[in-house]
Specification:
Two copies of one chain form a homodimer. Chain A is an alpha+beta fold and 146 residues long. The first copy, chain A, is built from six helices and six strands. Chain A has a three-stranded antiparallel sheet with strand order 1-3-2. The first copy, chain A, has a three-stranded mixed sheet with strand order 5-4-6. Chain A binds a DNA duplex (25 and 25 nucleotides) through α4.
Amino acid sequence: MGHSHATPDLDSLLDQCSDAGLRRTSALRACLEVLLKAGQPLTLQEIGTSPFLGISCDPATIYRLITRLEEKRIVRRIGFHSRAAHYCLRESSHQDYLICRDCGSVEVLDITCPVEHLEKEIAKTSGYSDLEHELEFFGRCAACQR
Amino acid sequence: MGHSHATPDLDSLLDQCSDAGLRRTSALRACLEVLLKAGQPLTLQEIGTSPFLGISCDPATIYRLITRLEEKRIVRRIGFHSRAAHYCLRESSHQDYLICRDCGSVEVLDITCPVEHLEKEIAKTSGYSDLEHELEFFGRCAACQR
DNA sequence: TTAGATGCAAACGATTTGCGCGGAA
DNA sequence: TTCCGCGCAAATCGTTTGCATCTAA
């Protein structure tokens, strides 16, 4: 299951969206571009205020757009512990995160996720389908310890 | 640091709260009792409407109480993917969860958590302190597949 | 007595929805 | 031309906070 560290490009994402029945609107292109250029998961608000967005976009539009993309499994929702949900592209390889309890900063962990095998095990024995997992480490970052 | 699979009892929890500087109020006793009897993490609302609560309790009271308990590290907050946060007692041994994307049901996984070693590794190399983790599996449960 | 808790009500922030218009197909 | 997607505004929901009162210590 080789890692796909290569960043997917905008055009192939747009094709993927078209295939899923979505229209190629400027809002769609803009949001995808923001997610592509973000190194980490973003909240709806962060997407809306990103300098990479280019256009102005209503929060409700972003909400419905990202929700649609999540249903089509092009985007993945992540909980973290903040009140607002975070979103990232599903195409990038699976990531685990290290989050600061105090300042909320997010680091992407450069590790081999140790849960893949267990996930297959659970898929076999639990009766659940479409399994995925979320693994996050919480702590206090160096800056916040002072 | 031997596992404490034994359910902690109310009195020792209350002692723990006293030691942490909290007062032994009826709301505190009631909320602890609810968390003790719950087999799984609960939302603030679920705590407030639990038949085990015994007394009537304002949502704001439960919110402040649980928040205090979380600060004192007697209670642990868990994200799941629902809009509302879930809480459980920290005394119980660490648990990982299997959650249904559709109906939101929660199963406690009876597994040896495969992340403990990795967590120690990250604790050493990341500069973060007070590390913990959260591991959740999401899927569609048998009932929701029909 | 008094600092910490509680109840009530209002404020907040992040969605979530209704509706009429506009643009992709 | 049609129907999906958009902006705007209002509704929801889960907290979060201010304040006066109560109560454990």
